[in-house]
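Readers outside the structure-tokenisation community will struggle with the description of the input data as it stands. What matters is that the chain and its backbone geometry are given together, residue for residue. For illustration, here is how one protein appears when written out as sequence plus structure tokens:

…
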Amino acid sequence: MLLFLNDFQASKAALIGFYEALRSETGGNISITIVTPGFINSKMTQNRSSLMKALFDDIIPMGSPEGCGKAVVRSACRGDRYLVEPSWYTLLYPLKVVCSEVIEFCNHKLFLRVVKSWENATTKKSD
């Protein structure tokens, strides 16, 4: 089985930990806003394969780059400690805490769906 997001998730967790520690060390003398964006309709996400677009576009709505940029500036100017954009992603956090097994199960099923579709697409190309 292929592993797709382990390095991304681990580096994201490490960065959040780093900036939280930096915030503690500076004692509030420096304002740090930790931004955790979800899927944003950017050049990176537009370059996805048509298969990935078909799988994710119906499941995960994307935020706009302009909306994300405005939210980052507003949040930093207010001195917010955290920003999740699109903001509806914040609804998932309580579910992750309370029902972590359910979230892991759903993520796993979605991951398997993506892998199976990817494997089918690559097999068809080689035929």
